[in-house]
Amino acid sequence: MRVGCPKEIKNHEYRVGLTPGAVREYAAHGHQVMVETGAGAGIGAGDDAYRAAGATIAKTPEEVFAKSDMIVKVKEPQPNEWVQLRENQILYTYLHLAPDPDQTKGLLASGVTAVAYETVTDERGGLPLLAPMSEVAGRLAIQAGATSLQKANGGRGVLLGGVPGVLPGKVAVIGGGVVGLHAAKMAVGLGADVTILDRSIPRLRQLDDIFNGRVHTRYSTVEALEEECFSADLVVGAVLIPGAAAPKLVSREMLSGMKKGAVLVDVAIDQGGCFETSHATTHADPTYEVEGVIHYCVANMPGAVPVTSAHALNNATLHYGLALADKGLKALVDEPHLRNGLNAHKGRITNAAVADALGYDLAEPKAVLAA
């Protein structure tokens, strides 16, 4: 198969869909790989490194899209990219379609077979291609929140770890999944006073065991959310419903009860955000203020640390990417967990959460693949 990797063009996105090491694996499987010139610059991988791994270098993104049977990316295609996609071509990347009707229309119009990293599953019910970026984003959320708390950046002027004789900052983490776990690890490491809220009692028990009493765990109710948000210096939104739009758990009204200069970091912003007042920002202009509360809502947080995140992402996506390249659509038929990643195929929506969020009729994946 002809596999193409264009350069990412989203604002301050420095990751790359294929590292030279991943290219070498595709080449070893007998596939032709084309990489756009400069695609790996953000991770320090020049064109020569890709040539050495077995890739050919394309001068333009148009050449990559036109000559490839499968496109491997990191972020969702931008408008000038989705118009280059076509039927009988596979797109393998993060999509986050539920809060993005325009991109969804573009992909459906193209007829492309779109496989989304964020809805591929594993035998334990986890999201293995989302997990590494969730780990990165969870850890970054505390770094970003701590920086935003500095007075010069509009925050309260609180040091999360405190100092002897001064209480540490308070951190509330909404959601105890992969993002929440890693955010809490970073916050605890800085010495903050941390509370994790979740609606799964078994998960709260597990988190209590993991942290051995170093964090507070609390069952998430409206009352609990209000109390924790009102007392927090930093709130991390880490709630995920696979494929679906994130629930709005913190209302605009609640902001009036929060401390002035407190910080909200919405890691769920790719799925629409879990704060009512969230809207996507970029690394170039990451924060804004509503009701005296600083919002950090960067939609591609791991792009800030591309060396770490690109390699972590490629480690996770390589197995299924090779399966798609080796077997084409048959890989989606044969592997149910990969098939869960199929979001669109020949103008039809094939993911239930996306169909429900955007009002499309659902096409059952097995049926459309068989047709």
From TrEMBL:
Keywords recorded for this protein, A-Z: NAD, Nucleotide-binding, Oxidoreductase
Gene3D superfamilies (UniProt xref): NAD(P)-binding Rossmann-like Domain (3.40.50.720)
Keyword Oxidoreductase among UniProt keywords: yes
Residues annotated to bind substrate: 15, 75
Active-site residues, record numbering mapped to chain: 96, 270
E.C. no: 1.4.1.1
Amino acids binding NAD(+): 134, 198, 203, 220, 239-240, 267-270, 298-301
Keyword Oxidoreductase: yes
Pfam families in the cross-refs: AlaDh_PNT_C, AlaDh_PNT_N
GO CC annotation, single: plasma membrane
Substrates-to-products reaction catalysed: L-alanine + NAD(+) + H2O = pyruvate + NH4(+) + NADH + H(+)
UniProt domain Alanine dehydrogenase/pyridine nucleotide transhydrogenase NAD(H)-binding: residue ranges: 149-297
Domain Alanine dehydrogenase/pyridine nucleotide transhydrogenase N-terminal: 4-137
Gene Ontology molecular function, alphabetical: alanine dehydrogenase activity; nucleotide binding
Family: Belongs to the AlaDH/PNT family.
PANTHER family per the UniProt record, alphabetical: ALANINE DEHYDROGENASE (PTHR42795:SF1)
Protein name, UniProt field: Alanine dehydrogenase
Native species: Tianweitania populi
